[in-house]
Amino acid sequence: MKKLLAGVVAGVVVVAGAGWAVGSRLRSPADEAARRAAPAASLVTAAVERRKLVSTVVLSGTVEYGSPLPIALAGAVGGTAEQQRATRAPRKGRIKEGAVLMEVNGRPVFALRGAVPMHRTIAPGTKGEDVEQLQRALRRLGYGAPSTGVFDGATIAAVTGMYAKKGYEAQQPTTTDRQTYDTLRKAVRTAQETLATEKQALDRGRDVLPLKVRLDNARADLKAARAALAGAESRELTPADETRLAAAESAVRAAEERLAEVEQALTAARTRPTSTPTGTPPGTPVPQPTPSEEDTSLLELKVANARADLAAAQDALDRAREEAREARDAKLEELRKAVRTAKEAVVTAEQALRQARQLSPARLKVAHAREDVAAAKELLADFARTYGVSIPPGEVVFLPKLPARVQKVSVKAGRRVEDEVATVTSSTFAVTGSVEAAESELLRPGMEATVEVDAGRTYPAVLTAVGDKAKPPGGEEAPEGSLPVLITPSGSKGLRAGTAVTARVTVGATDEPVLVVPVAAVITSADGKARVRVEYATDRTKDVEVRTGLTADGNVEVTGALKEGDRVVIGDA
């Protein structure tokens, strides 16, 4: 029995094992499709970095020794519109700052150092960078110009000195300008005379003159009333009051004297001694008799009367003072009322005159005459602001660097001056190349740049010119859709003419390290806001709103709820 049971169990085990083996090798079509499907996509991320960001425009160029720079006059030479002809052509050779490059119609063309091209007539009152540049050049040449940035009197004096030192006269107002200035001054005077005539006619009109006389009289009455009030206020008493008070005060003093006199008499009567009896030994006290009532009664009556007289005099003085004060107050109030009445009369007369003038037919003429005076003065002021010594646009040529060397002369004496007049070169190397027109809009002369040779060595440089001014005379034309560029290295050691180089012009840079992400990581939503997807766990992301800044080399500056080291999504893999 045991053997049978063991055999059954063994058979079951064998069958189960065979079933498991077969089941592990057999799959359904769904399982097979799932096994053959591509694995789930994973995220491609990049780290948020903190570093300085520099945006550059890159171009290929060639090192040229003494890169030529064409010179063209910015406008007319002299203050006349007559045909411009070279009376002395430029001479080849070295030229320094302040030298006369050439003459046109007998007028000089000065060479000065500056990056801002001459582009307009610099007249009295002109402001701007070109004027500051001119003032710096004048100071370098020793003419002591200010640094106001305004073509003012001190700058004009310096310019006049520069011209005189070279044997020329600074450009004075032309005959036409002087005639125009004189005409405008006469127009102002004429308008003022007309205004005065119309005002006089208005004031003398029959509908205005009586009211004007009434106003004058009212003003005179007001002046007199104010003077009378001021005089009364400055005096405490009138002459009559002063006389009355003086008499009352005199009566008080007389009563005081009378009282003192009778009081003294009464006292003397009461203390009068009697005769000493005969035979009284010396030294024996003598009895004093008592004065009789008949001796003192009259004096006591006089004292009582004197005291009554003094009280009456004092009362009279007090009444006189009170009456004088009341009289003064009444007089002042009367005078103040007169002033108020006079003011009302003046206001009434002014209103009547004003209404009459407004209704007068001559009023419109006066208004028009005033407008004419204002317009004439404004025209004169506008013209006067630019009237005086000036620098025509063609009489100064600003060159980036001086001294320089005239390499090529493009105009001859006696010929018309139209385009380029000469070509100058510097004693340093320059890199010539070209950029696409769209990139050229980012470039400005004076921007920092670097020049890199094949060996990997770099040289600091400055963008000197973009466009036609960077085009080498006789050189190759820039490709269609591009503009020529001229870059000047700060040093020339190790550079060779004809060497091909790569130049990078810095058009923007952050002042300090900032957070940057690849441009591909920034997504602009339908609401116009920029966001990035930040991976906070494996294949799990969240959107973070950011603000973008400078873009350079495929990276962009961002600010927001990010930190260095965060992973931002740039795609799926």
Describe this structure as you would to a colleague:
The chain is α+β, with helices and mostly antiparallel strands and 573 residues long. It has helices spanning 2-25, 29-36, 129-140, 153-165, 175-203, 209-234, 239-270, 293-359, 361-385, 437-440, and strands at 43-47, 49-51, 54-65, 69-72, 86-88, 93-95, 100-104, 107-113, 396-399, 404-409, 420-425, 429-436, 448-452, 458-466, 482-489, 500-509, 514-518, 523-524, 530-537, 540-552, 555-560, 567-572. The strands form 4 sheets. Strands 1, 2, 17, 18, 19, 20, 21 and 22 form an 8-stranded antiparallel sheet that branches. Strands 3-12-15-14-13-16 form a 6-stranded antiparallel barrel. The protein has a 4-stranded antiparallel sheet with strand order 4-11-10-6, with no helix packed on it. Strand 7 and strand 8 (107-113) form a beta hairpin. The protein is elongated, with a radius of gyration of 56 Å. 21% of the residues are buried. Residues 1-6, 8-16 and 18-26 have low confidence and may be disordered.
